[in-house]
Every structure is written in C-alpha cells, then in structure tokens.
Predict the structure of YggT family protein.
Amino acid sequence: MASVIIRLMNTVFGIIELAILIECIASWIPQLRYNKFMDIVYAITNPILTPFRALQDRFFPDSPIDFSPIIALFVIDFVLRQVINRILYMLLW
C-alpha cells in the first residue's frame, strides 16, 4: 500500500515539476505562450508559483529574473522527500 502511495506522489509531483519546466521554457519562446496546451500548464503552475512570486516581489522587488520556478522546484522536492520519509518511518515503526 505504501509503495502505491509513494509512486502516486512521485508521479503527481513529477507532473508538477515538468509543468514548471515547460512554463520556464515557454517563457523564452513567445510563440509557445498562447495556446490550449499552455493554458493547461498555466492552470497547473500558477497556483504553485504565485506565492513564490509574491515572496520574490517582497524581497527582491526590482529583480528582472523570475526565480520563483527555481524556488518552487526546491520546495516541491523538499516536501516530497519529507513526506516519503514520514511514510517510510511509519511503516518501519
């Protein structure tokens, strides 16, 4: 049961990470920004990236580079590892 949960979490977080990377790449190519596929990507990433963009605007208001995807990827990876460790810890004890 735990392996199914861990695989499901890895899949969901992997899709989120992939969507963030696609948005980053699309931001460099203007022709890719406005289509149905990117609407789906934005629907996935905007709720995740918005808090990190607000933090960046608060601490670095004049930054020309959007670091929110990098920060979000680090936080997502950290959260995933912590949750998996907790699940494994509960199974072992």
In short: Residues 2-28 form the longest helix (27 residues). Residues 1-92 form one domain.
